[in-house]
Design a protein that fits this description.
Mean pLDDT: 93
Radius of gyration: 46 Å
Number of domains: 1
Structural class: mainly alpha
Number of helices: 4
Number of strands: 0
Order of helices and strands: HHHH
Largest sheet: none
Distance between the termini: 116 Å
């Protein structure tokens, strides 16, 4: 019979009716503490949910910043590579201009190989190979 909700509730009412003043105060105090506990647990759960959402948002923002930083690193590496390629091209162009100058000077036969090497910065072997 106690499994029946209505019977169980009726039995509880009968038991409460038999309480004296002290027992009734203790009974009320018990349910007040249960109510306070539930209210506190609800508030804590809500606060934990808010904190969790804030933490997840912060993690998401941090991940976005990391992603942006990674993109910037890739861009910087690409720019550095391009600058390095330009520097190599400029160096090759300068070397070719020195070779062209040395070739023209050698062809005119107005200077010695040593003088051409001194002016162009090329080695004697490079000038003799022209």
């Amino acid at each position: 019979m106690l499994e029946n909700a209505e019977v169980s509730e009726a039995l509880e009412i009968v038991e409460r009716a038999a309480f004296n003043d002290t027992e009734m105060r203790m009974y009320d105090k018990f349910w007040d503490s249960i109510s306070s506990y539930r209210t506190l647990m609800y508030a804590l759960k809500k606060e934990m949910q808010q904190k969790t959402m804030q933490a997840e948002k912060m993690v998401s923002q941090a991940e976005e910043k990391v992603s942006q930083a990674e993109k910037q690193v890739i861009q910087a590496e690409q720019k550095a590579e391009q600058a390095e390629q330009k520097a190599k091209q400029a160096e090759q162009k300068m070397k070719q201009e020195k070779i062209n100058t040395a070739y023209r000077l050698k062809a005119k036969n107005v200077m010695t190989t040593a003088e051409i090497a001194e002016i162009t910065g090329l080695t004697l072997e490079e000038i003799n190979a022209l």
